[in-house]
From TrEMBL:
The keyword Cytoplasm applies. This is Exosome complex component RRP43. It comes from Rhipidura dahli. GO terms for biological process: exonucleolytic trimming to generate mature 3'-end of 5.8S rRNA from tricistronic rRNA transcript (SSU-rRNA, 5.8S rRNA, LSU-rRNA); nuclear mRNA surveillance; nuclear polyadenylation-dependent rRNA catabolic process; rRNA catabolic process; TRAMP-dependent tRNA surveillance pathway; U1 snRNA 3'-end processing; U4 snRNA 3'-end processing; U5 snRNA 3'-end processing. The lineage of its organism: Eukaryota, Metazoa, Chordata, Craniata, Vertebrata. Residues 26-163, 190-253 form the Exoribonuclease phosphorolytic domain. Gene3D superfamilies: GHMP Kinase, N-terminal domain. GO terms for molecular function: mRNA 3'-UTR AU-rich region binding. The gene is Exosc8. Belongs to the RNase PH family. It is found in: Cytoplasm; Nucleus, Nucleolus. Keywords: Acetylation, Cytoplasm, Exosome, Nucleus, RNA-binding, rRNA processing.
Amino acid sequence: RTVEPLEYYRRFLKENCRPDGRELGEFRTTTVNIGKCSITTADGSALVKLGNTTVICGVKAELAAPAADSANKGYIVPNVELPSLCAERFRSGPPGEEAQAASQFIADVIENSQMIVKEDLCIANGKLAWVLYCDIICLDYDGNLLDASVFALLAALKNVQLPLVTINEETGLSEVNLKQKNSLIIRKHPVATSFAVFDDTLLIVDPTAEEEDLATGTVTIVTDEEGRLCSVHKPGGSPLTGAKLQDCITRAITRHKEVKKLIDKVIKSITSK
């Protein structure tokens, strides 16, 4: 494994399995923790574990004036952090290339999937809107950061409760009613499914950090609950045939059902308490 890692992996892949005992199309154990037990100071939070990969997402809501060119829209600001404590490969300091690329990917998923319509965040046209700061921090990195990040973001947003805000017509000031809170309107539920490509032909799902390093490419497919394709993220690497890509999309649609079921189950257990 240390001297010739690729040959070591190929021996397993020939038998249609992986060194950790999983089949090629099998995900690691996935768990999600939503709400107060994650971050008490956030307006919504969630902790997601995908095997050893652990990601926490906190959403903080603030009030701001809308931009002049989009007077009826609020803002969503995602930020992915890969601190040095989550893996040896990351360094302290300003966000590295991988963290920046992940933040951009999350921003694209929010935009393309229309999970939250920015008009829904507007309180008073041209005067006041919500800003949602979504901080996604990786606590333990063992591959497949994007799937865990999208999952944590969705779970945290479903947990957000915003107070009722009105504008006093006499004073023109905003008044916040903390006693009356409403959930965010989540219009779509995007779920990411990542694959690693081995030797340009073989696809394995939910790669570990070691598998990502040995792979000749990776691809992430994002779908919503209607089976609609929201995003295909393929940062270079070996090309995929149309048939292979279709395989990935089919698997992603199945994965979506599994993740949605898990989120619904956890939310139901919280609300029934």
